């Protein structure tokens, strides 16, 4: 039996594109939420929980809460890494925490998103959908 302390993470490297910068030459603050999306996509590919997997099971997972704290700027052409961590919960939701680090390994930004499950009728799921509980069991999460 695996520990309930099993922590699932994923690290993705990204390069700042020109269209993501503002007139000051730094990444516009709204793009960090897009970078979080990049982290979720990479996490899903690595751990077998992609949006297509969720959709094929008959569910969607809209974001109901997002937070983002900025510490340092990123500039055009810089590469950075997004560390995405799944936060286990007994509730029927997906919670991810994010840390973005620059090439000097300095924390640039951190944040969190919360997503809920809606079924094909658009109804909120109060319990983990079967496919999601199966995924959690496979990953050693309680």
TrEMBL record:
SUPFAM superfamilies (alphabetical): Thioesterase/thiol ester dehydrase-isomerase
A molecular-function term among this protein's GO annotations: fatty acyl-CoA hydrolase activity
Domain of life of the organism encoding this protein: Bacteria
UniProt entry keywords in alphabetical sequence: Hydrolase
Pfam families found in the cross-reference section: 4HBT_2
Keyword Hydrolase: yes
PANTHER family for the chain: 4-HYDROXYBENZOYL-COA THIOESTERASE FAMILY MEMBER, NOVEL THIOESTERASE SUPERFAMILY DOMAIN AND SAPOSIN A-TYPE DOMAIN CONTAINING PROTEIN (0610012H03RIK)
Family label: Belongs to the 4-hydroxybenzoyl-CoA thioesterase family.
Protein name per the record: Acyl-CoA thioester hydrolase
Organism for this UniProt entry: Chryseobacterium rhizoplanae
């Amino acid at each position: 039996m695996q520990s309930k302390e099993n922590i699932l993470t994923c690290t993705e490297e990204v390069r700042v594109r020109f269209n993501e910068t503002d007139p000051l030459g730094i990444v516009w603050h709204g793009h960090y939420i897009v970078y979080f999306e990049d982290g979720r996509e990479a996490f899903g590919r690595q751990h077998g929980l992609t949006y297509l997997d969720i959709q094929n099971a008959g569910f969607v997972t809209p974001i109901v809460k997002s937070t983002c704290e900025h510490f340092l700027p990123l500039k055009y052409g810089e590469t950075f890494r997004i560390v995405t961590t799944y936060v286990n919960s007994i509730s029927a939701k997906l919670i991810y925490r994010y840390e973005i680090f620059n090439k000097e390994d300095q924390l640039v930004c951190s944040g969190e998103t919360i997503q809920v499950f809606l079924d094909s009728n658009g109804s909120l799921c109060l319990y983990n959908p079967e496919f999601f509980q199966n995924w959690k069991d496979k990953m050693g999460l309680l």
